[in-house]
Design brief:
The chain has 447 residues and is an all-alpha fold. 85% of the residues lie in helices and 0% in strands.
Length: 447
């Protein structure tokens, strides 16, 4: 199979890439404004709040998303409505549970991070979480149908409306509170949900359906992905959580500034992962594990080919980049950014490791691996922050990622006979093909 010749990859890749790029631009633009209009301690509080909310959303999606996509992709026509509404029911109750937990943790977290404002922010976020039940369900349905157009537009409206509000405050000189930012996030979620419903209303209407057989089947598959996503999110955010607890939100603000550049890495990594999983799950049914090996090695090779040049550029230009996106007061983030960019090259291997195992129906392995590595990351971060201060969070995370990378390659070799060096062969092959294409274009048509 050739990616270039497969229309699935072309259309899916275009809309998924547009979604990731727009999310990055809105996120980066909003960050560049908020980092300039909010005091450092408030920006640190916002970073901690965003980390926790993202943890809740990613965990909920993990329990429902991959299970729904896997079963819906191969379901018989008469089974599909049952699967979709059973998934919605599961989504609903998981969200209610997460809201209860979040409300219970709001006050203790405000004490842990010495941030009184964050308590009310968590209470206000309840509205957004309820809205996202519908938003996420419409997204999952479109993913299962391998239709990414509506996903792009609904996310564009959700994130774009929030960004527009931030711009209005910035250019008008008005003062914005952290509580109002949470309210505007809820409004953006409502607008995005309306757009998403417009794309699925022809074949889906959400309703609670207590079909226990399918709810149990979805839960039993999704519980490991749920645990995996929780562990992955803890792994990726524990550095900021420990910083906030051991130091202060001001240090979190500096560290968060450096991590923003990692969002550039997330564009191709997350885009390829969201496309590869439904296709990989489908190909497993048709061709077995050999298809997963091919998709894993090729997708990682593609990601490395995309990431290596910009990663090198960011490492070399870290200081002017921080000056542009955050200003002189955040220059302490420069060495942190350089460390994080080096280890960013491990992320394609790690992300596609989870995708490969999930598509093979082995999320339990991924889950256990992430539990172990999350513990390693906590220990590494605590030790390194104690020794080195703020940059210790980056050093600790880098150490844990190196251990994670080596472990994933050993497991994939055993499970599907994946070969690490093949990814570099594919990476080089992409460069050669790109060079050939460019030179042929420059030469023009043969006479």
């Amino acid at each position: 199979m050739s990616f270039a010749k497969d229309s699935y990859w072309m259309k899916s890749g275009l809309y998924t890439l547009l979604q990731r790029v727009s999310a990055l631009l809105f996120g980066l633009g909003g960050f560049m404004i908020l980092v300039r209009i909010l005091p450092k301690d408030q920006f640190g509080t916002l970073a901690l709040f965003t980390t926790v909310i993202a943890l809740v959303e990613v965990a909920r999606n993990g329990l429902v998303q991959n299970a729904q996509i896997k079963f819906a992709a191969s379901a018989k026509e008469e089974e599909l409505p049952i699967i979709l509404n059973s998934s919605f029911t599961l989504n609903f109750f998981v969200t209610i549970l997460s809201i209860v937990i979040l409300i219970g943790l709001a006050y203790p977290l405000s004490l842990l991070w010495s941030s009184p404002k964050i308590e009310m922010m968590f209470y206000l976020s309840t509205a957004t979480n309820l809205i996202l039940i519908f938003f996420s369900q419409f997204t999952f349905i479109q993913q299962a149908k391998m239709d990414f157009k509506g996903i792009f537009y609904s996310n564009f409206v959700r994130q774009g409306s929030y960004f527009v509000v931030i711009c209005i405050y910035f250019f008008s000189g008005m003062i914005i509170s952290l509580e109002m930012l949470v309210i505007y996030q809820a409004i953006g979620a409502v607008l995005g949900t309306i757009i998403g419903y417009g794309y699925v209303r022809g074949y889906y209407k959400p309703r609670l359906l207590f079909h226990w057989e399918w709810i149990k089947k979805l839960f039993n598959y999704g519980k490991f992905v749920f645990g995996t996503n929780i562990s992955a999110m803890i792994f990726s955010s524990i550095d900021q959580v420990i910083l906030g607890a051991m130091l202060m939100p001001v240090q979190v603000a500096v560290y968060n500034t450096a991590t923003r550049m990692n969002n550039f890495v997330d564009i191709p990594v997350a885009s390829v992962a969201s496309i590869v999983f439904p296709k990989s799950a489908q190909r497993v049914e048709e061709s077995g594990s050999d298809a997963v090996v091919y998709l894993y090695e090729r997708s990682v090779g593609l990601l490395l080919a995309i990431l290596v040049p910009p990663v090198i550029a960011v490492i070399l230009l870290a200081k002017p980049i921080i000056m542009i996106i955050a200003g002189e007061q955040y220059l302490a983030a420069v060495p942190i950014l350089q460390v994080l960019m080096v280890v960013a090259l491990f992320r394609p291997f790690i992300r596609q490791f989870g995708t490969a195992l999930d598509s093979l129906g082995k999320p339990k392995i991924n889950f256990r691996m992430l539990i172990i590595i999350s513990v390693v990351n906590v220990i590494a971060n605590y030790s390194c922050i104690t020794l080195f201060g703020t940059i210790g969070a980056a050093v600790g995370t880098a150490s844990a990622l190196l251990v994670f990378f080596v472990s994933t390659q050993v497991i994939l070799k055993k499970e599907i006979n994946a070969k690490t060096h093949h990814t570099f062969i594919y990476m080089w092959d992409f460069y050669k093909k790109a060079f050939t294409t460019v030179t042929n274009k420059l030469k023009g048509p043969a006479r």
